[in-house]
User: What shape does this take?
Amino acid sequence: MILLSFIVLIPFISALVLGVIYLYDPTKPREKLYATIGVTAPAISATIALVIEAKLLSMDASTVFYYKLFDWIEIGDFHINIAFMADRLSAVMLFFITVIGTLIHLYASGYMKGDSGYGKFFSYFNLFMGSMLLLVLADNPIVMFIGWELVGLSSYLLISFYHQKHANVTAGNKAFILNRIGDFGFIIGLVVLFISLEGYGYTFAEIEANITLIDPTTLTLIAVLLFVGAMGKSAQIPLFVWLPDAMAGPTPVSALIHAATMVTAGVYMVARFSFLYNNTPDIGEFIALIGASTALLGAIIASFQNDIKKILAYSTMSQLGYMFIAVGLGAYSSGIFHVFTHAFFKALLFMGAGAIIIALHHEQNIFKMGGLKEKLKWVYIPMLIATLAISGIPPFAGFFSKDAILITAFSSGHHSIWVMGTITAFLTAYYMFRLLFVVFLAPSKKAQKLEPLPNSMIVPLLILAVGSATAGLLGVPEALGGSNLFASFVALPDKPLHIPHSTEYLLSALNITLALLGVALAYKLFARAVHEPLNNSAWRFVVVNKFYIDELYTLLIVKPLLILSRLLLYLIDGKIIDNIINLIIYSYRRVGVSVASLQNGKVRYYAFYILIGVSFISTSMLILLGGF
Amino acid sequence: MIPEQFFIVATLLFSIGLVGVVSRRNIFVVYLSIELMLSSVNLLLVTFSRIDQSMNGSVMALLLIAVIAAEASLFLAMIIQLYRSKRSLDSDHFNLLNQNKGDL
Amino acid sequence: MLENSIFAILTLFLVIGSLGMISFKHTIFSAFSFLIAMLALAGLFALLENSFLFLAQIMVSVGAVVVLGLMVIISLGSIEKNIPDEPYKFYWIALSTLLVTPLALLIYKGLLTLHAHFNETKEGYGELKSMGEQLFSEWVLPFEAVSVLLLTAMVGAIVIARKEKYFKKKNYFDEHKHQEDTK
Assistant: This one.
């Protein structure tokens, strides 16, 4: 199935080609060329992906396509190949990554117009596509980790894209460092996994087959460590602080990486390791708890933000929390389904936000916008659809996926998780509609002259709007009459639910009601004349400053590390090690000077040295010849 | 009289001459010690001549005495020249070959 | 018996003379000790029945070498400030003696392997006549060579000890520069 390798390799090759062309002469604007290559590569990958999915659809649920690129490491029992594997889970991920990815590339070709680093941007963007596809199509955890690291790298490169401003570079560093902390846990987890399997398996299939060989405590440890990696990559508590800062990158980057794809890698990883997490339900509960807390925290902070991209960033964090609730409690299909639908509407929301930002000449504060409903009609309508979707209002996509998650939470018996999730659903509707009303409906302060938007930016919005509207229909659960095509397609080992249909209806009704309440509240507060709220109460102050979590991290972790580094630098490196080296050097020079003083230019001394030599030889001769 | 006596004397003279060359700073004493060493060789040659009963050793000794005279004149000329350049008769003052400049 | 006692006295003078030569601080005293040593050595030559060399040694070694040396020493080496001050002289001598001893022993050991002994001498051994016979027949080439050597040494000594001012040649460029300045 060599097509599998093409899916991954074509974006990488295109990234290389774009990089070479860009570096050949960075100053020459070749936007059409860059855009053509840059958008065609993911498009080809998308086409191939669709072909593969069609093939998979026609076969039964356990079919796996496999292609080995080459043998990589072969040391005794340790056997890693660079190989690709496409089963149904990969196929689902492939679908939205490639299709949405292509649309966002198209959008970016319009968004980044006029930027001097156009070629560089598309090179990095394609690099990201290739890495994400590598991650999803990986045959064994090591190759997945390669993709994992590469997406982290691409994220760093793209966040720091506007590198002239120091703050952007710092944000990129922050993202990479926090990712790295997660990766540390991830790789230790992999190491423990491989050691405890003792050479019985390095690919996912082999690990799954041999998972019973590992004892429960080690299994728990592995599960926790792997989740630490997911915490970093998918912005869960406590490693989420990079995601809002990552909005410093261009909006297409936020749309693709920090909404639709990279941040979902953690969820994908848990789903891929479903055979492991099924055996450790305690860790699953822990994951779900973290997810719920993250969801609630994100929603609370988002409700008080003024920057359009930051609202969407915290919203992403919140929705990711939902996904982890699902996969933590064993409902892998629901989690992946939410990943799927979330990709559509979040990408759409970001792209719309980008369109608004461009139209208003890089203004990002929502309270400085307003009344754009008529002027930006073709942005308003898709964003309205996406907002309806994310708020969980049927029949749009978000309703079915979010509903499934909350039902799982309720039926699992962990009511605290369910309560947190439900409150978050209310808040989600509230802050998303707050955004919509303030930007589009409320009257604007001053007359604004809008920048015209190119078609390349509008068309993807429309396509994704259709997707957001209809994608939910793939996962209509049995209770409401559908056959849940999605779950049956993905065929993950879900934990079965045991609640009657009536409870399901009740819960769904509760969700819808809360969502509508949120909309109503937002309407009441923000649809009329609106002014930027003042931070005049203590509660407001704390929330707007993101609960001071960044400052807490700086105090507890960053500052001690800096102090330790300075200590090492000045004390240990400066005084001790340098002095040891200096001592050695000093000794050498002293010895050298002493030896050099033998050569003092006085011939008498030289004769004396000859005499010493002669005397020595004579003595040895005398001894050898038997003394006198 | 046995040859060993003369051998001891010759060796003794040679050693004393060698000690003088190495130990003294005064150029004249060095010169005289060198002469002493050459004279010890002379003694040895004459002894060998007496043992062999032929004149070969004596002739060599005579020629060596001539060489000693020649070398004496050169030696003293050099001492005069050295004295002119540095106004010193201390062999330790002539150390232009010294590479040992400066400190650490 | 007589020979042995003469030998003993001569050796005594020889050794004391050489030891004094290397020990005295004043150069003149060293030179005089050397003189005594040379005289004693000549006596030893006579003991070895080599009358010609006995005379030759006194003539050259004492009459030429020591006299010449004394001339230079008296002109240069008698001024008090020129004589070097050697504080560690005896330590140096002691150390050198220690180092030279094995060499001396080795030389003596080598000499012992000859197992030599004195025989009665022939008629005319050590006389001028036998010396002359050898010098002009078998040893004529070294003899001539040594005479050339003496000539060279004479010339060389004069050249070395000359005063600088008769030696210095004007540099070519100095000449031209001087001419330009005076134009």
